[in-house]
Amino acid sequence: MEPASSADVLQLGWQLPFELLDLAPQRGTVQLAAVTAEGAVYAPAADPSPAESEADSATFDADLHGAAYAVAARLPDGSTKVAASDAASASLAASWLAARPGPAAWLLKVEAGAVEVLRGPEPVVPRAARGGPVALLVDLGMVLVGFDRGALARHFRLAFGRPAPLAGIARVEAMRADLEAGRLLADDFLDAAREPLQLARAEQAAFARVWGSILAARPDSVALVRSAAALPEVAVAVVSNTDPIRLRWCREELALGDLLEWVAASCQDGVNPKGVDASMWERGRELAAAQLGVRPAVVIGVDDVRGHLARAVAAGVVTRPVHYRHFAQFRYALGAAGLYLPQAR
């Protein structure tokens, strides 16, 4: 059995404190690494560094080793299951497991024919059922896209062939909160930016592109969320503090229009930024219900800011929060929240 299929067979049915996960679902071949519930990552040396699949490697709290890894479990019925990043390691892990009592699970490092226990014995429990339709409410910035605010001045110079007025950049950035909150319309923002940035009216459209260009898609998270959206019992809505200019950039330049078909954004009427209340999360849940045709039984909220999630949970909107730290931890946390996505392909 292929490594990804072995991982699915074990992990679809059982919740473990560590799993083998595909680090790059956007690529044609599965590349398995181990991740723990705490977010430590163990990647075989032949695989790309997980940080390379992140738009901002500084967010990736990884523990990398040059070896193969396996998850070995003796289940409550006495049977055994092994998943490993390669077939040879799976065979060695299975031989090692044969002499171990259970029920329990172990995270193993396999190198030069030797097996080392990294974690275990640890509990093995059945994976909880979803319990009904799922709303997956996903933040945009730092989850589906990374951003570099410092790129604004650099991209200004590339677009206009002259240095950006730094005082002007600061004045324009000061308008961002009003733009994101919908208190300032996109056209009014672009008009207001002309004087501090010394732009001609004909240059406004080019500056709109510069404004959006600080965002770059995170292909691993995008691929994962798209695979969730393809399930008939799952509805995805994006819930984001953002503005209409950057939303347009994401749709048109980053090709995220499919994921942004259903979006609750701070710039829209009737909602507030996430730092104010849970109204944006409430609209996201409503958008998910409209897609599903029923009220979701489970609402998974994904955000890189803990406070936003805490507010949504306290309001009774999000039932299963996922604090995004890096992609491997995101994938593990989705499974723990009831949305394990099979990896074999």
Offer a concise description of the structure:
This protein is an alpha/beta fold. The chain is 35% helix and 22% strand. The protein folds into 3 domains: 124 residues, no CATH class; 134 residues, HAD superfamily/HAD-like (Rossmann fold); 65 residues.
Order of helices and strands: HEEEEEEHEEEEEHHHHHEHEHEHEHEH
Percentage of helical residues? 25-40%
**What's the tally of helices?**
12
Which fold does the CATH topology of the largest domain refer to? Rossmann fold
Strand content: 15-25%
Strand order, main sheet: write it out: 14-13-10-15-16
Fourth-level CATH superfamily of the largest domain: HAD superfamily/HAD-like
- Distance separating the two termini: 12 Å
Overall geometric form: elongated
Q: Which secondary-structure class do the elements indicate?
A: alpha/beta
Number of E-state strands: 16
What does this structure look like?
The chain has 345 residues and is an alpha/beta fold. The chain folds into three domains: 124 residues, no CATH class; 134 residues, Rossmann fold, CATH 3.40.50; 65 residues. Helices cover 35% and strands 22% of the residues. The chain has twelve helices and 16 strands. The strands form five sheets. Strands 14-13-10-15-16 form a five-stranded parallel beta sheet, with helices on both faces. The chain has a four-stranded antiparallel beta sheet with strand order 6-5-7-8. α6 packs across α7 and α7 crosses α9. The longest helix has 14 residues. The two termini are 12 Å apart. About 6% of the residues have low confidence.
